Amino acid sequence: MFKKVTAALIIGLLLVVGFGCSKKDESAQNNQTSSQSQLPSGQPGVDSNQGGQPSKPVNVKEVAEKVSKDLDAKFPGDWSVSGTTLKKGSYTENGNYRIVDELAGLYNGSMVSIFVGQDRIAGTIKDQTGQRVLAGYPTPDSVAKIMESGEALVAPGGAMGSANYQKVFLPIKSKGKTVAVISISIAQ
Fold first, then answer.
1. Which residue segment(s) compose the domain that 87 sits in?
2. How far apart are the first and last CA of the chain?
3. pTM, two decimal places
4. How many domains would you assign to the chain?
5. Are residues 33 and 64 in the same domain?
6. 58-98 pLDDT tens trace
7. Going edge to edge, which strands form the sheet with 91-92?
């Protein structure tokens, strides 16, 4: 009888320890995932599809045409870049944020960033103090692809709350050369 009780206690103890370890591993995985993205709260993942399939795919050509038409009407002139300073006609986006705010208004619940090379020079995401989040967060891999190819693309953008997002990456060209990239996370 003593051997049966001892064996049962040992098995029970092993189960408790094993269950505790699996919870610890799960917690470590969750912490690793959140530390990898290092995005401010309220922004879907960089290049991941954390939220499953969007309800309606984004048509990149329609988005590009809508963005181009809107920006040309409100900010006439050609794009130009000097260092990391982006201009459209006589307007400079760095530090002003009118272009990203304008584009965010085109798609309800969207988030917009503009990259010159790997530098985020404008964005709609703000931290808890209301400051624009530009540095210290990873640049999506898609930005480098667009800078090289000059072609627009749609990538999964993850989820935030109950909304799935798709990220549309649009090249900004000056004299036929891609000089910057617009990223628009569109809620589905």
1. 40-187
2. 63
3. 0.71
4. 2
5. no
6. 899 999 999 999 999 999 999 999 999 999 999 999 999 99
7. 79-82, 85-88, 91-92
Closest by CA position to 132, among listed 105, 104, 97: 97
Q: How far, in Å, CA of 99 to CA of 31, rounded?
A: 35
Cα 170 to Cα 124: distance, rounded to the nearest angstrom? 16
Report which residue type is found at 25.
D
CA 154 to chain centre: 12
> Which domain CATH number covers 49?
3.30.450.20
The secondary structure of 72-130, three-state, reads HHHCCCCEEEECCEEEECCEECCCCCHHHHHHHHHCCCCEEEEEECCEEEEECCECCCC
| Model pLDDT for residues 161-183, shown as the tens digit of each residue | 556 788 999 999 999 999 999 99
Buried b (16+ CB within 10 A) or exposed e, 60-92: beebeeebeeebeeebeeebbbeeeebbbeeeb
